[in-house]
Design a protein that fits this description.
The chain is about 25% helix and about 40% strand. It is built from 6 helices and 15 strands. Strand 6 and strand 7 form a beta hairpin.
Length: about 250
């Protein structure tokens, strides 16, 4: 792994020396996709690390500080996210006849969602699951069917994030085009599943549901699920990972 980290570090330095690189101003995720393109990596959706066992996360200057660690639908029942949207979703802002379910839940406190219900995570060590607990408007527990097994989460975590390269970038517009510049790279090694669960309990890692609808074309109103993401703030990376010191 040391050689792979050294190789990625050298490639980052080459890309950094390129300065401002023309990107896609219409794609909010293009800062990461552009970097991968500069690496010569084709776009794919496999749940494996981006570069020889190293997962790459690129963060631009947006006000959004959260980083997606990995996506994982609940493994308690099939189509659980669809059920949550139908039972606890709320009307889309533009198309009120259709429900959406865009909420971020943590284990530290109950989160009130727009439909009036409250949700909270619970790390159940006895059953080896992370549960999603739903409360009604009177704070009475009404639903605890949704869950993720520890085994599922550990498999995804260790397969995808044993090693991480976190890259800081910036952007600017010039003559109607958007350009990106990659400024700094930091390498990390995962501390482990126990740390991951501890951070879930503390609310430093959250679960983000991202279920919207299609708003154009002949599929208006159809569900569009961007994935159920386990997220962490960029300021909390050092809680989950140990920094790897790389010679300048």
């Amino acid at each position: 792994m040391e050689k792979n980290i050294e190789l990625l570090n050298q490639k980052f330095k080459e890309i950094k020396r390129m300065g401002w690189i023309l990107g896609d101003k219409h794609n909010t995720g293009s800062v990461g996709l552009l970097f991968e393109s500069c690496l010569g990596k084709e776009r794919e959706n496999f749940e494996i690390p981006d570069f020889h066992g190293i997962e790459i996360k690129v963060k631009g200057q947006s006000k959004e500080n959260n980083i997606t660690l990995f996506n994982s639908a609940p493994d308690s029942y099939l189509m659980e996210v669809c059920r949550l949207k139908e039972e606890y979703g709320y009307p889309d802002q533009d198309f009120q006849e259709f429900k959406v379910f865009n909420v971020q839940i943590n284990a530290k406190h109950k989160t009130k969602i727009p439909s009036g219900y409250k949700m909270q995570l619970y790390v159940n060590e006895a059953l080896q699951i992370v549960e999603l607990i739903v409360y009604d408007k009177n704070n009475c527990l009404i639903d605890d069917k949704t869950s993720w097994t520890f085994a599922l989460l550990e498999e995804k975590l260790t397969r995808k994030l044993s090693y991480l390269a976190y890259i800081e970038a910036e952007s600017q517009y010039w003559q109607g085009n958007k350009y990106y510049r990659y400024n700094q790279i930091t390498f990390y090694k995962l501390k482990g599943m126990n740390t991951f669960l501890k951070l879930l309990k503390q609310g430093k890692i959250c679960i983000s549901f991202q279920v919207g609808i299609r708003k154009s074309g002949n599929r208006i109103g159809q569900k569009y699920d961007h994935g159920t993401a386990f997220v962490i703030s960029k300021y909390h990376l050092s809680y989950l990972f140990d920094k790897i010191n790389i010679p300048a």
